[in-house]
């Protein structure tokens, strides 16, 4: 169960203020809280978390146990760097009302983001890809629900600083994992 809990916390940290969350928040601010937007966001979140978990099952069979831990640390590090360096831009000024377009945008944004890479990396590193996938989906639910329900909070100028702080915490966890793996702590 540690794969579930650690992935859940790491995904919440990496996903806060991310592009997909800001997209849902921007639409909710402009169009009101349409339930269909939340449903589309949840479906895409489950699909991308399941895809990351499936890829983790494939990678898990190919890596020996010591390399798995380093792979998980690498995933945390990449997620932390993305949170520190990449600050999402504002949502588009004239978003479309099309749920299909929203689906494509969210799929593109989530397919290569830090949160899904964390699900993949933690699933491999903790040898629990489906637990990590479930945790990633649940964390994604929480993040999307927050963006849909309270979009005005994500338009605050404090959000980029919180995102950077989360990135720093992920980098600290990365260093701790590397030190522990090489028995330096």
Characterise this structure.
Keywords: Membrane, Transmembrane, Transmembrane helix. This is GDT1 family protein. By secondary structure, this protein is mostly helical. The chain has one domain (about 1-180). The protein is about 80% helix and about 0% strand. The protein is built from nine helices and no strands. It has helices at about 1-15, 20-30, 35-60, 65-85, 100-110, 115-125, 130-150, 150-155, 160-180. Helix 1 (about 1-15) runs antiparallel to helix 6 (about 115-125) and helix 6 packs antiparallel against helix 7. The longest helix has 26 residues, at about 35-60. The chain is globular.
Short characterization:
This protein has 185 residues and is mainly alpha-helical.
Q: Give the averaged pLDDT, no decimals.
A: 88
Strand tally is 0
Proportion of strand residues:
under 5%
pLDDT < 50 stretches: none
Please report the distance between the alpha carbons of the first and last residues: 24 Å
Class from secondary-structure proportions: mainly alpha
The biggest sheet, with number of strands, parallel, antiparallel or mixed sense and barrel status, is: none
Topology, please?
Blueprint: H1 2-15, H2 19-31, H3 35-60, H4 65-85, H5 99-111, H6 114-125, H7 129-149, H8 151-154, H9 159-181
Helix pairs in contact: 1-6, 1-7, 1-9, 2-7, 3-5, 3-6, 3-7, 4-6, 4-9, 6-7
Based on the model shown, name its key terms.
185 residues; 79% helix; transmembrane helix
């Amino acid at each position: 169960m540690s794969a579930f809990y650690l992935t859940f916390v790491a995904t919440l940290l990496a996903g806060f203020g991310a592009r997909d969350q800001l997209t849902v928040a921007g639409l909710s601010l402009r169009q009101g809280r349409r339930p269909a937007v939340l449903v589309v966001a949840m479906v895409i979140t489950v699909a991308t978390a399941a895809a990351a978990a499936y890829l983790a099952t494939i990678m898990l069979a190919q890596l020996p146990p010591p390399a798995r831990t380093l792979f998980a640390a690498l995933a945390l590090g990449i997620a932390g760097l993305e949170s520190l360096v990449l600050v999402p831009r504002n949502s588009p000024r004239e978003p479309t009302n099309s749920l299909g377009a929203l689906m494509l945008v969210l799929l593109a944004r989530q397919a290569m983001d830090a949160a899904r890479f964390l699900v993949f990396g933690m699933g491999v590193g903790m040898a629990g890809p489906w637990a990590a996938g479930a945790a990633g989906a649940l964390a994604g639910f929480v993040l999307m629900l927050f963006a849909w329900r309270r979009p005005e909070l994500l338009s605050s100028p404090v959000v980029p600083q919180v995102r950077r702080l989360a990135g720093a915490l992920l980098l600290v966890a990365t260093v701790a994992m590397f030190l522990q793996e090489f028995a330096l702590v």
